[in-house]
Design a protein that fits this description.
Strand order of the largest sheet: 1-2-3-4-5-6-7-8-9
Largest sheet: 9 strands, parallel
Shape: elongated
Number of strands: 9
Distance between the termini: 78 Å
Helix content: 10-25%
Length: 265
């Protein structure tokens, strides 16, 4: 059988009370403009779709539209949706508002630079392999967060109280939240180049303890600044015809440079 590329009008094929429609693993480029209001489950993954119908039925609960060529989703998603699988597309943005009933969101492997506010009942968020620089506030209901391979520089200071899994590898993190919830059983933060992993987290999650690079950088910066000031002051002393050099020629000792440097930084 040849793969379908253009679906016929669904209302001409199925009765108005249809609840499930699966058309995955074809070569579809377009979808019907309208689905019956009874539809609860739509699976159109692994096609060549560039867009979805602008209006989806308010009865829809599960949407599988992953592995297509979608650049955006409908601007308004039905609040009835609990499961949204839109990973492995070309999405650059999300609708401003996600469905209030949403519990499972898989949007990994897209081109997202920003996520909208997350609904309160969300349990799983898979948003790895995007262009995210920060995460929105995380709902207390969240149990599984996978945000690896982005450009995130900092995790939310307050992690959800029931979070069990956190994968944030391959980002640009330099520090971790002060406290992790007791519910956490799995944590992956590998390949964050300058991430400080304190001893308590290293022991708890069987990680390798790493130094506090931020603190080391500050110390190095202070040392460098002090040396730089010393070099400037010494140069001024050794130069001719300035107040500082003339004063030191008459009264000074070069050892006092260290005292000056100490108090000017």
């Amino acid at each position: 059988m040849q793969p379908v590329t253009h679906p016929t009008n669904i209302n001409d094929i199925f009765p108005s009370f249809i609840q499930t429609f699966v058309c995955s693993h074809n070569k579809l480029q377009y979808m019907p403009l309208k689905f019956p209001n009874s539809l609860q489950y739509l699976d159109c993954c692994y096609n060549r779709l560039k867009q979805l119908p602008l209006i989806l039925p308010n009865s829809l609960e599960t949407l599988h539209c992953n592995d297509n060529c979608l650049k955006q989703l409908p601007s308004i998603l039905p609040n009835s949706i609990t499961d949204l699988y839109c990973h492995d597309n070309q999405l650059t943005k999300f609708p401003n508002k996600l469905p209030v009933s949403l519990k499972y969101l898989y949007c990994n492997n897209n081109r997202l630079a920003h996520l909208p506010n997350l609904p309160n009942g969300l349990a799983i968020l898979i948003c790895c392999d995007n262009l995210l620089k920060q995460l929105p506030d995380l709902p207390n209901s969240l149990k599984n967060l996978r945000c690896g391979n982005n450009q995130i520089t900092e995790l939310p200071s307050n992690l959800p109280p029931y979070l069990e899994v956190l994968s944030c590898q391959d980002n640009q993190l330099t520090k971790l939240p002060i406290n992790f919830p007791p519910s956490m059983v799995r944590f992956n933060c590998s390949r964050n180049k300058y991430l400080y992993i304190p001893k308590k987290y290293a022991k708890r999650f069987e990680l390798i303890e790493t130094p506090n690079y931020n603190q080391k950088a500050l110390i190095i910066q202070r040392i460098w600044r002090r040396i730089k000031y010393k070099q400037i002051i010494v140069k001024m002393i050794l130069d001719n015809d300035n107040v500082l050099s003339n004063s030191f020629k008459s009264y000074g000792d070069l050892n006092i440079v260290y005292l000056i440097a100490k108090y000017v930084i």
